[in-house]
Design brief:
heterodimer, A: mainly beta, 6-stranded mixed β-sheet, 5-stranded antiparallel β-sheet, 11 strands, globular, B: mainly beta, 7-stranded mixed β-sheet, 0% helix, 54% strand
Chain lengths: 112, 112
């Protein structure tokens, strides 16, 4: 069965203190791995899609990387506005196009 | 782009009742998916509609049903509500060309 595990569950950072979030996955044929950001009471906001091992994508202070078993979201010199829950999701080739399997997320708090 | 809009934003229902949630997809998106997100968890895939037909379903009972209309708006219907149905219900629309998924802000359903 496909599975997505995110760690740590929660992360508290000082402003400027870089860190990484982990997403481990098992899937029978990966079509894509997605990273979303979710603010309290809001829907997930799309960040990145990664398709194959070795791929990297960057957006402002965020950088996502992908291997055959896990993905990392690196946050460089975070600011308080980066506080959010970060969700990882995978889509299997055998699944319907709109189906994403999500992890439980990592809650990130960045303090000034 | 108009984004994905959902209504209502909040709803309180009594156990055993029926509820209909609505979603207006982003312009140009012909696929819509519905997700259930319990507190502290990642979203769980309910089902997907493409060109007004259901073509993918997660592990949810038949009392969860849906419709997609020609203008790509959609509905999620839940019959015989149970206390465990209390959650944030998210709609996501996408387009196979640009391979993106855009989420709405969700409907918070409370069953008492």
């Amino acid at each position: 069965e496909d599975q997505v595990t995110q760690s740590p569950e929660a992360l508290r950072l000082q402003e400027g203190e870089s860190s990484s979030l982990n997403c481990s996955y098992t899937v029978s044929g990966l079509r894509g791995l997605f990273w979303y950001r979710q603010d309290p009471g809001k829907g997930p906001e799309f960040l990145f899609t990664l398709y194959s091992a070795g791929e990297e994508k960057e957006k402002e202070r965020l950088k996502a990387t992908l291997t055959k078993k896990e993905s990392f979201l690196h946050i460089t010199a975070p600011k308080p506005e980066d506080s959010a829950t970060y969700l990882c999701a995978v889509q299997a080739r055998e699944d319907s196009w709109g189906k994403l399997q999500f992890g439980a997320g990592t809650q990130v708090v960045v303090t000034p | 782009e108009t984004g994905v809009t959902q209504s209502p934003t909040h709803l309180i229902k009594t156990r055993g009742q029926q509820v209909t949630l609505r979603c207006s997809s982003q312009s140009g998106h012909n696929t819509v998916s519905w997700y259930q997100q319990a507190l502290g968890q990642g979203p769980q895939f309910i089902f997907q509609y493409y060109r007004e037909e259901e073509n993918g379903r997660g592990n949810f009972p038949p009392r969860f049903s849906g419709l997609q209309f020609p203008n790509y708006s959609s509905e999620l219907n839940v019959n015989a509500l149970e206390l465990d149905d209390s959650a944030l219900y998210l709609c996501a629309s996408g387009n196979r060309v640009d391979y993106g998924y855009t989420f709405g802000s969700g409907t918070r359903l409370t069953v008492v």
